[in-house]
Design goal:
There is one protein chain. The chain is an alpha+beta fold. It folds into two domains: about 200 residues, no CATH class; about 130 residues, Reverse transcriptase/Diguanylate cyclase domain (Alpha-Beta Plaits), CATH 3.30.70. The protein contains 14 helices and four strands. Strands 2-3-1-4 form a four-stranded antiparallel sheet, sandwiched between helices. A hairpin with a 4-residue loop joins strand 2 and strand 3. It is elongated and about 100 Å long. The relative contact order is 0.08.
Protein backbone atom coordinates (compact mmCIF):
# COMPACT_ATOMS: atom_id res chain seq x y z
CA UNK A 1 0.00 0.00 0.00
CA UNK A 2 2.79 2.41 0.97
CA UNK A 3 4.67 1.60 -2.25
CA UNK A 4 1.54 2.33 -4.34
CA UNK A 5 1.00 5.69 -2.62
CA UNK A 6 4.68 6.53 -3.09
CA UNK A 7 4.49 5.72 -6.80
CA UNK A 8 1.34 7.85 -7.20
CA UNK A 9 2.70 11.00 -5.52
CA UNK A 10 6.21 10.72 -6.96
CA UNK A 11 5.98 8.93 -10.31
CA UNK A 12 2.39 9.26 -11.52
CA UNK A 13 1.45 5.68 -10.60
CA UNK A 14 4.53 4.29 -12.39
CA UNK A 15 7.63 2.88 -10.73
CA UNK A 16 10.94 4.73 -10.52
CA UNK A 17 12.52 2.61 -13.27
CA UNK A 18 9.77 3.54 -15.75
CA UNK A 19 9.94 7.19 -14.70
CA UNK A 20 13.71 7.30 -15.25
CA UNK A 21 13.29 6.07 -18.85
CA UNK A 22 11.20 9.14 -19.72
CA UNK A 23 12.91 11.70 -17.48
CA UNK A 24 14.82 13.24 -20.41
CA UNK A 25 11.59 13.44 -22.42
CA UNK A 26 9.90 15.28 -19.52
CA UNK A 27 12.80 17.71 -19.21
CA UNK A 28 12.70 18.45 -22.94
CA UNK A 29 8.94 19.05 -22.79
CA UNK A 30 9.19 21.35 -19.76
CA UNK A 31 12.02 23.34 -21.34
CA UNK A 32 10.07 23.85 -24.55
CA UNK A 33 6.75 24.69 -22.93
CA UNK A 34 8.31 27.06 -20.39
CA UNK A 35 10.08 28.93 -23.20
CA UNK A 36 6.82 29.18 -25.17
CA UNK A 37 4.79 30.40 -22.21
CA UNK A 38 7.44 32.85 -21.04
CA UNK A 39 7.49 34.32 -24.55
CA UNK A 40 3.69 34.55 -24.62
CA UNK A 41 3.64 36.05 -21.14
CA UNK A 42 6.22 38.67 -22.13
CA UNK A 43 4.15 39.69 -25.12
CA UNK A 44 0.82 39.81 -23.29
CA UNK A 45 2.16 41.67 -20.25
CA UNK A 46 3.92 44.15 -22.55
CA UNK A 47 0.58 44.80 -24.24
CA UNK A 48 -1.01 45.35 -20.82
CA UNK A 49 1.81 47.73 -19.87
CA UNK A 50 1.26 49.76 -23.04
CA UNK A 51 -2.48 49.89 -22.27
CA UNK A 52 -1.68 51.14 -18.77
CA UNK A 53 -0.27 54.30 -20.36
CA UNK A 54 -3.34 54.71 -22.57
CA UNK A 55 -6.31 53.44 -20.55
CA UNK A 56 -6.83 54.85 -17.10
CA UNK A 57 -8.32 51.59 -15.81
CA UNK A 58 -5.03 49.77 -16.32
CA UNK A 59 -2.71 52.43 -14.88
CA UNK A 60 -2.91 51.24 -11.27
CA UNK A 61 -1.51 47.83 -12.32
CA UNK A 62 1.54 49.35 -14.03
CA UNK A 63 4.08 48.18 -11.35
CA UNK A 64 2.71 44.63 -11.64
CA UNK A 65 3.16 44.67 -15.41
CA UNK A 66 6.74 45.92 -15.15
CA UNK A 67 7.54 43.21 -12.61
CA UNK A 68 5.91 40.61 -14.86
CA UNK A 69 7.95 41.65 -17.91
CA UNK A 70 11.26 41.51 -16.01
CA UNK A 71 10.37 38.14 -14.54
CA UNK A 72 9.24 36.64 -17.85
CA UNK A 73 12.30 37.90 -19.77
CA UNK A 74 14.50 36.25 -17.17
CA UNK A 75 12.41 33.10 -17.65
CA UNK A 76 13.10 33.16 -21.40
CA UNK A 77 16.85 33.37 -20.78
CA UNK A 78 16.68 30.53 -18.25
CA UNK A 79 14.65 28.38 -20.66
CA UNK A 80 17.21 28.90 -23.41
CA UNK A 81 19.97 27.90 -20.99
CA UNK A 82 17.99 24.78 -20.03
CA UNK A 83 18.22 23.63 -23.63
CA UNK A 84 21.86 22.87 -22.91
CA UNK A 85 21.54 21.98 -19.21
CA UNK A 86 18.41 19.81 -18.95
CA UNK A 87 18.39 19.80 -15.14
CA UNK A 88 17.48 23.50 -15.25
CA UNK A 89 14.15 22.60 -16.87
CA UNK A 90 12.59 22.03 -13.43
CA UNK A 91 13.70 25.48 -12.32
CA UNK A 92 12.07 26.78 -15.51
CA UNK A 93 8.83 25.07 -14.52
CA UNK A 94 8.59 26.80 -11.17
CA UNK A 95 9.81 30.11 -12.54
CA UNK A 96 6.94 29.97 -15.05
CA UNK A 97 4.46 28.92 -12.35
CA UNK A 98 5.71 31.82 -10.23
CA UNK A 99 5.28 34.34 -13.06
CA UNK A 100 1.60 33.51 -13.50
CA UNK A 101 0.57 32.86 -9.89
CA UNK A 102 2.40 35.86 -8.43
CA UNK A 103 0.86 37.96 -11.19
CA UNK A 104 -2.59 36.62 -10.20
CA UNK A 105 -1.91 37.30 -6.52
CA UNK A 106 -0.75 40.85 -7.22
CA UNK A 107 -3.75 41.65 -9.41
CA UNK A 108 -6.19 40.22 -6.85
CA UNK A 109 -4.72 41.70 -3.68
CA UNK A 110 -2.69 44.80 -4.53
CA UNK A 111 -4.41 46.46 -7.46
CA UNK A 112 -8.06 45.48 -6.89
CA UNK A 113 -8.45 44.51 -3.22
CA UNK A 114 -12.09 45.59 -3.14
CA UNK A 115 -13.09 43.00 -5.76
CA UNK A 116 -13.34 39.23 -5.48
CA UNK A 117 -10.28 37.56 -6.99
CA UNK A 118 -10.85 35.72 -10.26
CA UNK A 119 -7.51 35.81 -12.08
CA UNK A 120 -5.56 33.96 -9.39
CA UNK A 121 -8.22 31.24 -9.08
CA UNK A 122 -8.20 30.59 -12.83
CA UNK A 123 -4.41 30.52 -13.00
CA UNK A 124 -4.25 28.26 -9.94
CA UNK A 125 -6.24 25.59 -11.80
CA UNK A 126 -4.77 26.13 -15.25
CA UNK A 127 -1.02 26.76 -14.83
CA UNK A 128 0.05 23.54 -13.01
CA UNK A 129 -1.60 21.46 -15.75
CA UNK A 130 0.70 22.92 -18.40
CA UNK A 131 3.89 21.41 -17.00
CA UNK A 132 4.99 17.93 -16.02
CA UNK A 133 6.60 17.35 -12.63
CA UNK A 134 6.18 14.93 -9.76
CA UNK A 135 2.75 15.48 -8.12
CA UNK A 136 4.14 15.95 -4.62
CA UNK A 137 6.44 18.79 -5.62
CA UNK A 138 3.76 20.54 -7.66
CA UNK A 139 1.24 20.08 -4.84
CA UNK A 140 3.62 21.73 -2.37
CA UNK A 141 4.08 24.58 -4.83
CA UNK A 142 0.30 25.07 -5.11
CA UNK A 143 -0.07 25.07 -1.33
CA UNK A 144 2.75 27.61 -1.04
CA UNK A 145 1.05 30.09 -3.41
CA UNK A 146 -2.35 29.57 -1.80
CA UNK A 147 -0.79 30.46 1.57
CA UNK A 148 0.89 33.53 0.03
CA UNK A 149 -2.44 34.62 -1.44
CA UNK A 150 -4.27 34.20 1.88
CA UNK A 151 -1.60 36.22 3.72
CA UNK A 152 -1.76 38.99 1.11
CA UNK A 153 -5.55 38.94 1.12
CA UNK A 154 -5.68 39.26 4.91
CA UNK A 155 -3.52 42.39 4.65
CA UNK A 156 -5.42 44.05 1.82
CA UNK A 157 -9.02 42.81 1.90
CA UNK A 158 -11.83 42.90 4.42
CA UNK A 159 -15.36 41.69 5.09
CA UNK A 160 -17.19 39.26 2.83
CA UNK A 161 -14.70 39.77 -0.01
CA UNK A 162 -11.91 38.43 2.21
CA UNK A 163 -13.99 35.47 3.41
CA UNK A 164 -15.03 34.48 -0.11
CA UNK A 165 -11.49 34.81 -1.45
CA UNK A 166 -9.97 32.66 1.32
CA UNK A 167 -12.65 30.00 0.83
CA UNK A 168 -12.18 30.04 -2.94
CA UNK A 169 -8.40 29.84 -2.63
CA UNK A 170 -8.63 26.74 -0.43
CA UNK A 171 -11.23 25.03 -2.63
CA UNK A 172 -9.49 25.87 -5.90
CA UNK A 173 -6.15 24.86 -4.39
CA UNK A 174 -7.51 21.41 -3.53
CA UNK A 175 -9.05 21.08 -6.99
CA UNK A 176 -5.75 22.16 -8.57
CA UNK A 177 -3.82 19.48 -6.66
CA UNK A 178 -6.32 16.75 -7.59
CA UNK A 179 -6.54 17.72 -11.25
CA UNK A 180 -2.75 18.10 -11.50
CA UNK A 181 -2.24 14.58 -10.12
CA UNK A 182 -4.80 13.10 -12.54
CA UNK A 183 -3.36 14.87 -15.57
CA UNK A 184 0.23 14.14 -14.51
CA UNK A 185 -0.58 10.43 -14.20
CA UNK A 186 -2.03 10.39 -17.71
CA UNK A 187 0.95 12.26 -19.16
CA UNK A 188 3.57 10.07 -17.49
CA UNK A 189 1.84 6.84 -18.47
CA UNK A 190 1.59 8.19 -22.02
CA UNK A 191 5.31 8.97 -22.09
CA UNK A 192 6.16 5.53 -20.69
CA UNK A 193 3.93 3.79 -23.24
CA UNK A 194 5.46 5.88 -26.04
CA UNK A 195 8.95 4.93 -24.85
CA UNK A 196 8.05 1.24 -24.63
CA UNK A 197 6.61 1.27 -28.15
CA UNK A 198 9.74 3.03 -29.43
CA UNK A 199 11.99 0.45 -27.75
CA UNK A 200 9.93 -2.38 -29.21
CA UNK A 201 10.07 -0.86 -32.69
CA UNK A 202 13.86 -0.46 -32.48
CA UNK A 203 14.80 -3.70 -30.70
CA UNK A 204 15.42 -7.13 -32.18
CA UNK A 205 13.13 -9.46 -30.24
CA UNK A 206 15.42 -12.51 -30.46
CA UNK A 207 18.76 -11.00 -29.41
CA UNK A 208 17.81 -7.76 -27.66
CA UNK A 209 20.12 -5.79 -29.96
CA UNK A 210 19.01 -2.75 -31.92
CA UNK A 211 17.20 -3.81 -35.09
CA UNK A 212 17.39 -2.74 -38.72
CA UNK A 213 14.69 -0.11 -38.23
CA UNK A 214 16.86 1.58 -35.60
CA UNK A 215 19.92 1.09 -37.82
CA UNK A 216 18.29 2.93 -40.72
CA UNK A 217 17.12 5.76 -38.45
CA UNK A 218 20.51 6.34 -36.83
CA UNK A 219 22.69 5.88 -39.92
CA UNK A 220 22.65 9.57 -40.96
CA UNK A 221 23.73 10.61 -37.44
CA UNK A 222 27.13 8.91 -37.66
CA UNK A 223 28.49 11.45 -40.15
CA UNK A 224 28.83 14.02 -37.36
CA UNK A 225 28.48 11.70 -34.37
CA UNK A 226 32.15 11.10 -33.61
CA UNK A 227 35.07 13.31 -32.53
CA UNK A 228 38.20 11.67 -33.95
CA UNK A 229 37.43 8.28 -35.45
CA UNK A 230 34.70 5.83 -36.33
CA UNK A 231 34.86 2.14 -37.15
CA UNK A 232 32.25 -0.07 -38.80
CA UNK A 233 32.50 -3.77 -37.93
CA UNK A 234 30.43 -6.03 -40.18
CA UNK A 235 29.71 -9.56 -38.88
CA UNK A 236 28.02 -12.42 -40.72
CA UNK A 237 27.41 -15.78 -39.02
CA UNK A 238 28.65 -18.79 -40.96
CA UNK A 239 26.62 -21.99 -41.11
CA UNK A 240 23.23 -20.73 -39.87
CA UNK A 241 21.28 -22.28 -42.74
CA UNK A 242 23.07 -25.63 -42.37
CA UNK A 243 22.57 -25.63 -38.57
CA UNK A 244 18.85 -24.90 -38.97
CA UNK A 245 18.52 -27.80 -41.39
CA UNK A 246 20.51 -30.28 -39.32
CA UNK A 247 19.53 -29.43 -35.73
CA UNK A 248 16.44 -27.22 -36.06
CA UNK A 249 15.70 -23.53 -35.76
CA UNK A 250 16.05 -23.57 -31.96
CA UNK A 251 19.73 -24.48 -32.34
CA UNK A 252 20.08 -21.70 -34.92
CA UNK A 253 18.45 -19.20 -32.57
CA UNK A 254 20.76 -20.25 -29.75
CA UNK A 255 23.76 -19.57 -31.99
CA UNK A 256 22.45 -16.14 -32.98
CA UNK A 257 21.79 -15.21 -29.34
CA UNK A 258 25.22 -16.45 -28.24
CA UNK A 259 27.04 -14.45 -30.92
CA UNK A 260 24.89 -11.36 -30.23
CA UNK A 261 25.85 -11.52 -26.55
CA UNK A 262 29.50 -12.02 -27.47
CA UNK A 263 29.46 -8.95 -29.73
CA UNK A 264 27.62 -6.87 -27.15
CA UNK A 265 30.10 -7.83 -24.40
CA UNK A 266 33.10 -6.74 -26.50
CA UNK A 267 31.51 -3.53 -27.80
CA UNK A 268 29.27 -2.64 -24.86
CA UNK A 269 29.67 1.12 -25.29
CA UNK A 270 29.10 1.02 -29.05
CA UNK A 271 25.98 0.77 -31.20
CA UNK A 272 25.36 -2.89 -32.03
CA UNK A 273 22.67 -3.86 -34.55
CA UNK A 274 21.22 -7.06 -35.91
CA UNK A 275 20.34 -5.93 -39.43
CA UNK A 276 19.44 -9.32 -40.96
CA UNK A 277 18.91 -12.95 -40.09
CA UNK A 278 22.61 -13.65 -39.48
CA UNK A 279 24.17 -10.19 -39.92
CA UNK A 280 25.37 -7.79 -37.25
CA UNK A 281 26.83 -4.31 -37.60
CA UNK A 282 28.76 -2.39 -34.97
CA UNK A 283 29.67 1.31 -35.01
CA UNK A 284 32.52 2.02 -32.59
CA UNK A 285 33.20 5.72 -32.06
CA UNK A 286 36.51 7.26 -30.97
CA UNK A 287 38.22 3.95 -30.15
CA UNK A 288 41.86 3.46 -31.29
CA UNK A 289 42.30 1.02 -34.18
CA UNK A 290 44.62 -1.18 -32.14
CA UNK A 291 41.91 -1.57 -29.53
CA UNK A 292 39.35 -2.42 -32.22
CA UNK A 293 41.65 -5.16 -33.57
CA UNK A 294 42.11 -6.55 -30.06
CA UNK A 295 38.36 -6.61 -29.44
CA UNK A 296 37.72 -8.43 -32.73
CA UNK A 297 40.42 -11.03 -31.90
CA UNK A 298 38.85 -11.72 -28.50
CA UNK A 299 35.40 -11.87 -30.10
CA UNK A 300 36.57 -14.46 -32.64
CA UNK A 301 38.03 -16.61 -29.86
CA UNK A 302 34.84 -16.44 -27.82
CA UNK A 303 32.73 -17.43 -30.83
CA UNK A 304 35.11 -20.27 -31.71
CA UNK A 305 34.99 -21.54 -28.11
CA UNK A 306 31.37 -22.54 -28.76
CA UNK A 307 32.34 -24.17 -32.09
CA UNK A 308 30.64 -21.38 -34.01
CA UNK A 309 32.16 -19.13 -36.64
CA UNK A 310 31.42 -15.66 -37.96
CA UNK A 311 33.00 -13.76 -40.81
CA UNK A 312 34.16 -10.35 -39.64
CA UNK A 313 35.33 -7.31 -41.57
CA UNK A 314 36.00 -3.81 -40.34
CA UNK A 315 36.76 -0.41 -41.82
CA UNK A 316 38.38 2.30 -39.73
CA UNK A 317 38.13 6.02 -40.51
CA UNK A 318 39.83 9.07 -38.99
CA UNK A 319 39.17 12.69 -39.82
CA UNK A 320 36.14 14.49 -41.22
CA UNK A 321 34.02 14.31 -44.39
CA UNK A 322 32.94 10.76 -43.66
CA UNK A 323 30.98 8.83 -46.26
CA UNK A 324 29.01 6.45 -44.04
CA UNK A 325 27.81 4.27 -46.91
CA UNK A 326 31.37 3.87 -48.21
CA UNK A 327 32.51 2.92 -44.72
CA UNK A 328 29.85 0.19 -44.52
CA UNK A 329 30.51 -1.10 -48.04
CA UNK A 330 34.24 -1.48 -47.34
CA UNK A 331 33.60 -3.25 -44.02
CA UNK A 332 31.09 -5.56 -45.71
CA UNK A 333 33.53 -6.29 -48.54
CA UNK A 334 36.20 -7.33 -46.04
CA UNK A 335 33.65 -9.50 -44.27
CA UNK A 336 32.83 -11.33 -47.51
CA UNK A 337 36.53 -11.84 -48.14
CA UNK A 338 36.83 -13.41 -44.70
CA UNK A 339 33.77 -15.55 -45.39
CA UNK A 340 35.23 -16.81 -48.68
CA UNK A 341 38.47 -17.72 -46.93
CA UNK A 342 36.48 -19.70 -44.35
CA UNK A 343 34.44 -21.63 -46.90
CA UNK A 344 37.51 -22.34 -48.99
CA UNK A 345 38.71 -24.37 -46.00
CA UNK A 346 35.35 -25.74 -44.81
CA UNK A 347 32.62 -27.57 -46.72
CA UNK A 348 29.35 -25.59 -46.41
CA UNK A 349 27.54 -28.84 -45.59
CA UNK A 350 30.03 -29.96 -42.94
CA UNK A 351 28.04 -28.49 -40.06
Amino acid sequence: MFERVKNIILYGDCNKESFDTVKTRIEEYNQGISLAFASIATFLITVMLVLSYIQEGFSESKPVYIFGIIFSVFQILLSLLAKKYRSLSYLCVYMAVSIFLLYGIAIGTLTRPEEQTVTFMVLLIFVPLIFVDIPLRMALSIIFYVVIFIIMACNTKAGSTLSVDITDAIIFGILAIISEMVVYRAKIRGYVLEYQLQVMSETDQLTGLKNRNCYELKLPMYKDGYSDSICCIYIDVNGLHELNNSKGHKAGDEMLIYIANAVRSRFEKSDVYRIGGDEYVVFALDIPEEEIIGKIAVLEKRIAAQSYHAAIGYQYFEGKDLDVNDLIVKAESKMYKNKDEYYNKHDRRSR
